[in-house]
Write a structure and sequence with these properties.
The chain has 117 residues and is mainly alpha-helical. Helix content is 61%, strand content 8%. 15% of the residues are buried. Keywords: DNA-binding.
């Protein structure tokens, strides 16, 4: 199990559509019973449930779990504080800022690619 301060050392998320709870547990460094508890506490986290009530998480769920893990274990938020942070304008602004940075990086990489051609 990873230490709480080692969120940067989590494994890379493979290019799959669905992940089982065991896979997500390994990808996020969180035990399965914690994931099930977080599903009750965070409405943003809602894996697809199929036959036999099995959970299948998508990539956005895994990213959300990593964000929740960071808020709780690294930044010291309580469950309520993390819930409020995820629903706040700060989180939306962070998301917008991140999208802008990604867009800018893609543009710069395309320019570099053109220079290399």
């Amino acid at each position: 199990m990873l230490e709480p301060s080692n969120n940067n050392e989590l494994p890379v998320i493979p290019a799959k559509r669905y992940f089982t709870i065991g896979e997500v547990s390994e990808l996020c460094g969180v035990k399965p019973h914690v994931l099930r508890y977080w599903e009750q506490e965070f409405t943003e986290l809602s894996p697809v449930k199929r036959r036999g009530n099995r959970r299948y998480y998508q990539r956005h769920d895994v990213l959300m779990i990593r964000q929740i893990r960071s808020l709780l274990y690294e930044q010291g938020y309580t469950i309520g504080g993390a819930r409020a942070h995820l629903g706040s304008d700060d989180a939306k602004e962070d998301s917008t800022r991140t999208k802008q940075l990604i867009h800018q990086m893609v543009s710069e990489l395309e320019e570099i690619l053109e220079l290399l051609k």
